[in-house]
Amino acid sequence: MSSVKPQRKRYLLRSSSERSIAHMDLDTFFVSVERLMDSRLNDKPILIGGTSDRGVVASCSYEARKFGVHSAMPMKMALNLCPEAIVIRGNSSNYTKYSQLVTDVIKDAVPAYEKSSIDEFYLDLTGMDRFFGCYQYTSELRQTIMKETGLPISFGLSVNKTVSKVATGEAKPNNQMHIDFGQERGFLAPLSVRKIPMVGEKTYQTLRHLGVRKIHTVQDMPMEMMERVLGKHGKVIWEKARGVDLTPIIPYSERKSISTERTFDKDTIDVVKLDSILTAMAENLAFQLRRGTKLTACVAVKVRYSDFNTHTLQARIPYTASDHILIPKVKELFRKLYDKRLLVRLIGIRMSHLVSGGHQMNLFEDNVEIQQLYQAMDKMRDKYGDRSVIRAAGMQARSIGRMMNPFNGDPPILLANRRS
Known about the structure:
alpha/beta; Alpha-Beta Plaits; DNA polymerase, domain 1; Dna Ligase, domain 1; 5-stranded mixed sheet; damaged DNA binding; mutator protein
């Protein structure tokens, strides 16, 4: 045992320059899944999202992108640009299934990985170069994923998450790239600043107004200038532009969850009250998911009776963060679980198997009204409090608890247990 501990200690204390971090990204994931199910879609321009004129593009094939189509574009505009495109409404259930297949392959192959969204993964291969080349191993893993799932996937490999993610983007479609240690800055220099993670459209326009278009310009700028222009994010973006990123891999765990419970001062059999509280709980948890840009794929309901016997029932669902999907599922589980002959002491809801990527999955709606409604309500909640806007069905719930640092850290997320 004593001979093993020093080796593990050296592994944990490795400097960032010795890390081997791979970023893997499934190419046009939703489109690729649809093509697996219907080969007639191969090589055709595909639009996935809401199928009505008021729908929005959630994903599109490379054939459609040649016409200027991109995700989040109104479907009507996309069809004007590419009239021959085939429009398919997204199927969350199928995408969830194939995402899990890829996750299972990666989980069995690497010591640590982070599932950053439904179709993106970071792999920490640090130390594995002692036994075989990390690039060769990742290449073989990529081939295994494609063979076992039929899905195309690309990857970038470097010393950190930022450079690897950018490398993946440059390698696409269906390819791979390795940035050797010491080559990070030179690799990034000629690329557009839009390639830097964290640089969204607003930040990009700010930099463009300063005459900054390429990453090499940011590399040559004083860090203080970036901070003056972009505030607290300026330093982080400046470091990323220079190929510096010490962000660790956050090991993925399907046990990560967001949950809430309610213990009653007086045991109750009031079904209307229980229904109202469950509605309020589920609505608030869905809001917290959207605020953290998270999706859940598993919902559980817990009931504790007056005799302290506790029963839990859970169900896997397609990835979602939508009230109108989660609330009915919660009520369905409660109906299956609830024994009307007994007084209820506690009820609770847990949403688990969380991943990032809420925006894109929500674009499968046939029109944008529901999503615009969610955005408007969430904006009011952010400004005036979680319960400033609630469903009438949930008004009997006087309070639903206090959120404990949602999505600001790695541990499971809990809502404080409050008595009513």
